[in-house]
Amino acid sequence: MALNLSQKKEIVAEVAQIAAKAHSLIAVEYAGTTVEQMTAMRKKARESGVFLKVVKNTLASRAVAGTDYECAKDSLTGPLLYAFSQEEPGAAGRLIKEFAKGNDKLKAKVVVVGGQQYPASHVEVLASLPTLEQALGMLARVLAEPAAMFARAVKAVADKQGGADAAPSA
Question: pTM for the whole thing?
Fold first, then answer.
């Protein structure tokens, strides 16, 4: 279906708005993917905060101009599915990795994070990033560990001196 100029402008504006706020971009070759697989991927993408869109590459190039993803303009060739992580950087990587297991025709072509383009194999690294909840849990553990170590050290000294069971005498 051919798009008229106003429809093209709407698509460019929509993708540009998403790209301005997104944390990462993965462009994926999707040729050979069935409608059922694409529908399942779109449903999972909505649940995980990933914006998925099949866009003509010229429109995508215009949409990413002036954003962190402009570095990938020259690599946007062939039929591509664009996955922008909106909530956390690793969400798109996890989504693509999960669906690539069941579909060998789904292949990452471009990975961009923080204005830097990486090879397609970087999807694995992006997918291994912790979620926000996991990262906060790791931070809480790191912050609590010094206090726990201090408490264990004080208890060990008290046990060694035998003062743990005896009450102080007046």
Answer: 0.73
